[in-house]
Amino acid sequence: MKKNDFQFYISGAFHLGIGFGIVSLLSRWVTGNTILSSPETLIKYGLTGGIGYSLMGALALILFGILAKKIRDRFHDQQTIGDVLRERLTPGGYWYMISILLVISIHSIFVQAMGAGILLHMIFPWPVFSGMAIFLLFCFFIGGAGGMQRIHQLAGINVVLIFSAVIIIPVYFYIQEGVYPVYEGIKLYHPYILYVKNTEAIWFIFTAILIGFGQVIVDRASWQRVFIIQKEKLRMTFTLAGLIWATIPLALSSLIMIIIFGRSYDSIYSLLFELVGKINSTLLIVLFILFCFSSISSAISAELHATVTLIIKNIFDLLHPLSNKEKWRYTYIFSGIICLFLLIIVSILPPNPLELLFFFGNIYASMIVPMLYIILGNKTLPALIPLASIIGTAGGFAALPIVENLITIWISFFISSLICLVYFIYNILKMKLSYKFSKRY
């Protein structure tokens, strides 16, 4: 495959084995939301919530890995989630799903950029606008203009930095402070963190797993990796990636416990800044900063690449067939527009990553069963199946004034599932009646 071919931009030069497939998935899923929401979850829901947050990502990747083999067997000639949707849906259903995927894509990239903005504000004395401009320019050259090959070139470095930070820094602190003093300090000042019979935390865990699986099953970047990882190694790759990913939020939670033991704190987000202040080693400070920005930049680059691919391959090329040169030109244009949009929005809006994640939780939950129907079904599906997700989402948001946020996510899931189930039963009854009628006459 030639490097100036747009297919090279989408898929890179080669198929991935287990090792590099895990690296590629981790560089996509260790994100700014992981870094910032892990401590927030620990503070709000205690150790049970911190463990639940780890389970969310692990189970989401493992469950999607089970589907990945089926996807490759059925849609082996495709490259993106948009290609699969086009094959399985009517035109109306296809364009609806593409619209939803674009909204989800922008939201997902925005959450990562928001995390970068928070970290820039905490660690460096620069204005957020100038720091974000440099950061997004880097992401533009990697994910927007560089394509899958450039993302893969940096994925190994990203994962090395991630695991160096989450292993070396906690060990450094626990050698300095000791495990028992940390436990006693948490028990004295923050005993709620050690309370494991928190029913609210259990409810959070199940809801987080639902949202996590919904995120992965509609994630454009993960779908692209399904088509570039060797087919016989797909399930093992996703399973191992999920198990390894689960260790990262746990390591981050342990860091937060080291910071807050024996004292109170002012702000959840200031805790990471205080971590930088507590590290006496310049080398470890540099390692922590590189870990944060490497994680976020790799996630944004993967999302940016997948979103631009979706726009060009599954929207513009269908509306007006493009030449190879035009596809490359539009790649730079749309990547630049998205990065500029992120720069402006992140500089204006106040941050709250966990609330942003759960605000879109209704959409992620309501997409699960329609996507399963699309993947596992045998016939072209009507617009009702993708529309079930918007009906479920609307039902969940409508319930917000009377029930709490986590319950509305389940309402969205059950409404969407019920619509798909009714359609499934209707099809079975219709087939049986048709068979009986043809047999009689």
Automatic annotation (TrEMBL):
Lineage top rank: taxon: Bacteria
Record family assignment: Belongs to the sodium:solute symporter (SSF) (TC 2.A.21) family.
Transmembrane segments: 12-30, 50-68, 94-120, 126-147, 154-175, 201-218, 238-262, 282-312, 332-350, 356-376, 383-403, 409-429
Keywords annotated in UniProt: Cell membrane, Ion transport, Membrane, Sodium, Sodium transport, Symport, Transmembrane, Transmembrane helix, Transport
Localization in the cell: Cell membrane
Membrane topology: Multi-pass membrane protein
Source species taxonomy: Bacteria, Bacillati, Bacillota, Bacilli, Bacillales
InterPro entries recorded: Na/Glc_symporter_sf, Na/solute_symporter, Sodium:Solute_Symporter
Protein name: Na+/proline symporter
Cellular component, GO annotation: plasma membrane
Species the sequence originates in: Cytobacillus oceanisediminis
Reaction catalysed by this enzyme: L-proline(in) + Na(+)(in) = L-proline(out) + Na(+)(out)
Alphabetical GO biological process terms: sodium ion transport
